[in-house]
Amino acid sequence: xxxxxxxxxxxxxxxxxxxxxxxxxxxxxxxxxxxxxxxxxxxxxxxxxxxxxxxxxxxxxxxxxxxxxxxxxxxxxxxxxxxxxxxxxxxxxxxxxxxxxxxxxxxxxxxxxxxxxxxxxxxxxxxxxxxxxxxxxxxxxxxxxxxxxxxxxxxxxxxxxxxxxxxxxxxxxxxxxxxxxxxxxxxxxxxxxxxxxxxxxxxxxxxxxxxxxxxxxxxxxxxxxxxxxxxxxxxxxxxxxxxxxxxxxxxxxxxxxxxxxxxxxxxxxxxxxxxxxxxxxxxxxxxxxxxxxxxxxxxxxxxxxxxxxxxxxxxxxxxxxxxxxxxxxxxxxxxxxxxxxxxxxxxxxxxxxxxxxxxxxxxxxxxxxxxxxxxxxxxxxxxxxxxxxxxxxxxxxxxxxxxxxxxxxxxxxxxxxxxxxxxxxxxxxxxxxxxxxxxxxxxxxxxx
Length: 448
What we know:
Elements: H1 2-24, E1 28-30, H2 32-42, H3 44-65, E2 70-77, E3 83-88, E4 98-103, E5 108-119, H4 123-189, H5 195-207, H6 209-230, E6 238-240, H7 253-263, H8 265-285, E7 291-302, E8 313-323, H9 331-397, H10 403-438, H11 442-447
Parallel strand pairs: 1-6
Antiparallel strand pairs: 2-5, 3-4, 5-7, 7-8
């Protein structure tokens, strides 16, 4: 009975510890759409871009707050009292002098001060506009991160599918080689195949095992990479579901180039940054102008903290402050020159970026066209390669060809399948590259 109780307790401990872990590691089915959803909700770099947008929005509120008055209150209790003693001589000869202690320290002081800018030469207005432009620029930066995340997820998803299919091709090639090896062994035993044919068949089957091992390793690496992109734990079990299929699309190169210049978030960022530089020039030139501000303060103090009549003494003042800049060592002109140089820098960067974007679109278009042509040619090639293997097996069985010829036919079939898979992969990936180059988001690319 004691041993039974120990086993029951151990079982309960295992269930208590293992059940939550098992629930936490429940397998997730990953389609392409599911991958994109996860990446746009869990990818750390994408989430960081969203936080940058929130930070820029907070800076807009900070700039708007500069238009409002500032109000500050202060209270003070003085613990270091300054007592002065005055001594008066006695009017009676030989009498004691009279002493009087006077406390000039106010033990409790309270003050309230405010300040309101009335005229700043346009600094506050330009600062607010600059903050809003920075917020718009950060939104475009986030859109750029979104498009890059989508492309990376599609690449990772297609990499996994390609690797999985290549494993299948390697397994089929090994199975076919082992089948051929068994046939050659049977023929060798009855004297219908030579020792050389048997050795060649054994070598071919053995040579196909390392590529299969490598292909399986590539799939494991592709799975880890995809999990990382999605913000999943690397230990999370997943089931990637999907197929790389050829879906023809009609793409006009000239229209794509125009759309890219219109849609790319990088160009929008530069346009906002150029406007921000213009506002910085206005802020710099405002240093030439005077500023006017209204300020005031109210102070009250007392020796005792008691709200009785005549216990507190008060003072208040209002000030209209005019500040006129006279000379600052030519700092203002240097700031203006800096902002103008920044505008010219942005203009040159914009020209270079437009050229790079056009190159990116054209390169993706050419890769897509090439992949499409390769795909159509390899689709027919697979059928021919399969028929070639069938005929080669029959001819070898009848002694019409050598084992080398049969092996060459099998290699050609594997190459045709691999080339077909790579063509589909290149087509799907180049289409994703083209959508990103044009500046289309996930939903926009699906609608097109």
